[in-house]
Amino acid sequence: MRCALLVAPLAVGLTACGSDDGDPLAASPYDATDQVAYSLADGGKVSPSKPLEITTKDDDSRITDVTATDAAGRYVRGELAADGMRWHSTSPLSAGAHYTVRVSTEDADGRPGRKTVGFDTTAADNLLRVSFGPDTGTYGVGQPITAELSAPVEDPAARAKVEQNLKVTASPEAAEGSWYWVNSRTLHYRPSDYWPANARIDVRSTLDGVRVKDSLYGGPARPLSLKIGDRVEAITDSGTHEMTFKRNGAVVRTIPITTGKPGFSTRNGVKIVLGKEQFVRMQSTSIGIAAGSSDAYDLPVYWATRVTWSGEYVHAAPWSVGSQGVDNVSHGCTGMSTENAHWFFDQVRSGDIVQVVNSLGETMTPFDNGFGDWNLNWTQWKKGSALGAKGQTAAVQNKNTAAVPARLRPEA
Asked: How far from the centroid of its chain's Cα atoms is residue 5's Cα?
């Protein structure tokens, strides 16, 4: 003999055995079409901005359970009235989605009824799209993930909705990570510590169809997969005039260097490699030094590894070999011999760490001159999240960062 257990959420669970002909639950559920009404348009599609409502058509029947899911399996939250006469959704529907609604009822005699209905919601006219960066490839352990939005998002609740739907996973697992709202259209993601060496990073959005605010809905987004290489760190010590190059924690080479002289001191802090250029022409006029000045220069520069957008590089400086390891004589870049610069150029990739210590310069800013994200400690970083520390209702934005004067910069 087989028994069936019927559990009705928000209602009393009842048991029935098929051998008892007198039990109203022994029969198969009847078609409850004539018992319930839906707030769905006859034919056509439903606006996702309106709640879904299901009611009973007579006083002798009641709703015992409702489940509504979209094609991705996401549930719609809802509330059932205590008398079982009405159920309504309490979370917004997605745009451009297909929903399946399953309703359980019972009549005056306690017999169970069932009704399943499907409907589609209209597509959104106003879509928020997300573009992830950087491009697919292999990067260093310091590479932040970026998300560029197609429209600004200012409202704290809307930002939280966006952030909840931007997913980042790492294998092997990374340390705790978080998004930071750089401005109303740009987010950066990083862990509390650098990415694990040789990890795989997967980034995706689940915003598609999700209502962000008013008539603004998430649109589709292309996922991103990255690989992380070895942990490469170049520690540039302006006080000792040496660079210590480490790979996976082991010192590989110590290089004599020169950094920025007084008035042009190299920025302290963590920078990451932005790109590499085998040849760059550098002119002092690009940073406001007039031709004929004692500080003027017009130089062909080889094996140039860029670390700021304003033109700070690690590069070959054969003209200053006598000062390398001894004094700081550059206009802000890190100079070394041609042989060492070529070796460094071949060893690094975008996302690798270049950290300057003991310089007289200011600390690298977080967002306006490259990727200075790691110059915020983890407590500061979490405050940039719309889901961040208790009491933080909005992201900390980079609105008050002063413009940073350029260092060596290639000719425009």
From this structure: 44
